[in-house]
Write a structure and sequence with these properties.
This protein has 431 residues and is an alpha/beta fold. It has 14 helices and 17 strands. Helix 13 packs across helix 14. Bound molecules: pyridoxal-5'-phosphate (PLP). Pathway: Amine and polyamine biosynthesis; ectoine biosynthesis; L-ectoine from L-aspartate 4-semialdehyde: step 1/3.
Length: 431
């Protein structure tokens, strides 16, 4: 494995003209120009394997050929591009396809809200609606949760650094321990249950609970099926709405279209974004149990709720979900990923690595501070794009496009293994 061309493109323009808030261009310091499938190229011609997939917005790969064809054709025909929430042919087709391919076969019944094009827009609309429906204000979020960067979404996000960015107190939310937060022998649902039932807990009856089935940003923490089922039961029994934020784990990331399918739960509200548009185009959905759809017309508005280009690619992307085959492929690739990660953690026990996640959302949590960041830096120098996750960036996270082939997956994993090996060796030398 050769190091990439050392004459990396300059980031001068970004360093001088773009705000200090920029982040990913610091982790991946080059200038990208082309992308296809699971590969990216920079302006110097270096090739990268993408184990990041736009933080989950590129599940179907960069410039997916079938999606691109539909999109180009639609643009060529002067199809409507922007339309607020007017009725358009593109939206009609998407709604019908989503009903037929996703909801109906799963026995799910939801009204579809287009809340604005981002995940945070979907979360905000879910929180508003839950408060409107119940007439209550408190929403329970979980430790290490991530729900987006707007004020409502931040109020149920765990990360201190991100919360502080709000600049105002984040109220009307309570943070509860996620599954496993207090160690494997503490049942955190029992704790939540007593907080809700006990008149002395200091916590008023919440409007809703918002949860991720796997915390993608928070360190690939996975809630067990039993925990999710008991959470649903507790919510139902207490008249609390259950919101599943499937913005990152949905659209097949864990194998099934929705990440909660394995648990067999039926959330009251579901947030989807990132890969729902299919082509990396901004789009989000809030799925609402029909009896909760008490919005007044225009009560949650937004200029960019009608991204028809995204509706076109979103409808086409649903082809992947017409049979079980795609799920089976994701699971099979997930198995390859898992066994390689286990092999790596076994080979280098001194790095204190723990494999986490499932499907094509997995990673290694390291017990040594700064190690995951160092690994991500090293793999980048060898042409692999991977990011860290967790409050202390302690997890090296692997989330390739779901359409990656076995060859690409193995190639990327070889770069990871080689990099871990080098770093383990360097650490020994330093001792
Ligand atoms: C990315 C993400 C969001 C926020 O989505 P944006 O489009 O960045 O606003 C919300 N929830 C989860 C779980 C996410 O991963």
């Amino acid at each position: 494995m050769k190091l990439l061309d050392p004459s990396k493109p300059s980031l001068h323009v970004f360093d001088t003209l773009e705000s200090e808030v920029r982040s990913y261009c610091r982790s991946f310091p080059t200038v990208f120009s082309r992308a296809k499938g699971y590969k990216l190229w920079d302006t110097a011609g270096n090739e990268y394997i993408d184990f990041f997939a736009g933080a989950g917005a590129l599940n179907y790969g960069h410039n997916n050929t079938a999606l691109k064809q539909k999109l180009v054709q639609y643009i060529q025909n002067d199809g409507v591009s922007h339309s607020l929430d007017m009725a358009t042919e593109a939206k009609e087709q998407f709604l019908e396809r989503f009903q037929k391919v996703i909801l109906q076969p799963r026995g799910l019944s939801y009204k579809v809200q287009f809340p604005g094009p981002t995940g945070a827009n979907s979360v905000e609309s879910a929180l508003k609606l839950a408060r409107k429906v119940t007439g209550r204000s408190t929403v329970v979020g979980f430790t290490n949760a991530f729900h987006g960067m707007t004020l409502g979404a931040l109020s149920v996000t765990g990360n201190k650094f991100k919360r502080r960015g709000a600049g105002v107190p984040l109220h009307h939310s309570v943070s509860m321990p996620y599954d496993g937060y207090l160690g494997s022998d503490v049942d955190t649902i029992t704790y939540l249950e007593s907080c809700i039932a006990d008149t002395g807990s200091g916590i008023s009856l919440p409007a809703a609970v918002i949860v991720e089935t796997i915390q993608g940003e928070g360190g690939i923490n996975e809630a067990s099926i039993g925990w999710l089922q008991r959470l649903e039961k507790l919510c139902k029994a207490s008249g609390i709405l259950l919101i599943v934020d499937d913005v990152q784990m949905g659209c097949g990331r864990t194998g099934t279209f929705f990440s909660f399918e394995q648990a067999g739960i039926k959330p009251d509200i579901i947030c989807l974004s990132k890969s729902i548009g299919g082509y990396g185009l901004p789009m989000a959905l809030t799925l609402i149990a029909p009896e909760l759809d008490i919005w007044e017309p225009g009560e949650h508005n937004g200029t960019f709720r009608g991204n028809n280009l995204a509706f076109i690619t979103a409808a086409e992307a649903l082809r992947y979900w017409e049979s079980e085959q795609f799920t089976n492929e994701i699971m099979a690739k997930g198995d390859i990923l898992r066994s390689k990660l286990l092999e790596i953690t076994k080979s280098f026990p001194e790095l204190q690595g723990e494999v986490r996640g499932r499907g094509l959302m997995q990673g290694i949590a390291f017990g040594i501070s700064g190690l995951a960041e160092r690994i991500c830096e090293r793999v980048f120098s060898k042409g692999l794009i991977m990011e860290t996750s967790g409050t202390d960036s302690e997890v090296a996270k692997i989330m390739p496009p779901l359409v990656i082939d076995e060859e690409g997956l193995r190639k990327g994993l070889d770069i990871l293994e080689q990099s871990v090996k080098e770093i383990a060796h360097e650490m020994k030398e330093q001792k």
